[in-house]
Amino acid sequence: MAINIYIAEDNFSQRQQLVAAIENYALFSNWEMKIVSAVASGEELLASIDHENQWNVYFLDINLAEDAKINNGFLVSQKIRVFDPFGFIVFITVRSELSFLTFQYRVQALDFIIKDPAVNIAERVHSCLKTVEQRLNSLTNSQTLHLNTGNDLQSFLVDDILYLSANKGHVLSLFTREDSYPIYLETLNHLETELANSFIRCHRSYLVNQKAIQQIAKDFKSLSLNDGTIIPISVRKKTQVRAFLQGRDRKTIADNF
Questions:
Q1: Predicted confidence (pLDDT) per residue in 128-181, tens digit
Q2: Taking the C-alpha atoms of 42, 45, 47 and 51 in order, what is their torsion angle to the nearest 10 degrees?
Q3: Are residues 152 and 221 in the same domain?
Q4: Could you tell me which residues come within 8 angstroms of residue 178 by beta carbon, excluding any fewer than 6 positions away?
Q5: Do 117 and 23 share a domain, yes or no?
Q6: Dihedral in degrees, nearest 10, Cα atoms 90, 119, 18, 86
Q7: What is the pTM of this model?
Q8: Are residues 29 and 56 in the same domain?
Q9: Do the beta carbons of residue 208 and residue 163 sit within 8 Å?
Q10: Are residues 15 and 108 located together in one domain of the fold?
C-alpha cells in the first residue's frame, strides 16, 4: 500500500530540502512512499492529487507565492479535507505564531514545522513520517467502511463514527465528532448487520457506536454520547439496550446509570 506525498513550497531550495529528507527516509521505510508532486503553488498541488489513493501526506508552506490564486497553505488544506479527511497535513512556515490557526481552520494538522536555523528540518520531516507510519500501522488493523457520500466513495474508520441516522429520501447521515456526511445507496439494516459487533440499533432511525455511549437514561428512553448528542431509544429497542448495558463491562456507563 503506497503513501503518496505532496509538497507545496514556493522556495526552490527549501522545496528541494524537503524532497531530499523524504527520499532519504523512504529508503528505510517498510511502507512504499512516493513523492507525487513537489510544486510552488496550491493550484498545482491540488491538480496533482490522486483521489483514488487511500493514504496521503501533505507538506504545505503556509505563505505560498503571492501571485498565485491560492497563496495560503491553510486554504489548500481546507480544499484537501473536502475529499481526504484522513490525509496527514504538515504545515511549514517561518511564523510560529500562526500555529494556532490550524484550530481555526479545523483541518487537524499532524505537525507544524518552523523554518529556523536552529531547527533541523530533515529530522522534523523524519519524525512526521515515522508518526504517519505508526498511525497507519494501527489504522490498517482497524475496521473501515467505504461509503458513497454523493461525490465518490469515502473511507471511514469505524471507531471514528459516533452514529448513523436515517432521513427522508433514502439518504443516511453519518456523524463523527468533527463533521457529518450524507450517505447514499446504503441502509441502516445492512449496516446494522455489518457492524453488529460494535454498533447498537436503539431506534429504527439510529445506529450508534457502542464505544461512543456515555450514559443511558434510567427510563431507557434515551442515551447520550460522549460528544453530548442525545439519541432516542424506541420502545421496541429497550430490551436490546438493556441487554447491551448488562452485557458490557463498562464502568463509565454503570456509574452514570
A1: 999 999 988 877 666 788 889 887 777 788 888 999 999 887 899 999 988 899
A2: -120
A3: yes
A4: 106, 108
A5: yes
A6: -10
A7: 0.58
A8: yes
A9: yes
A10: yes
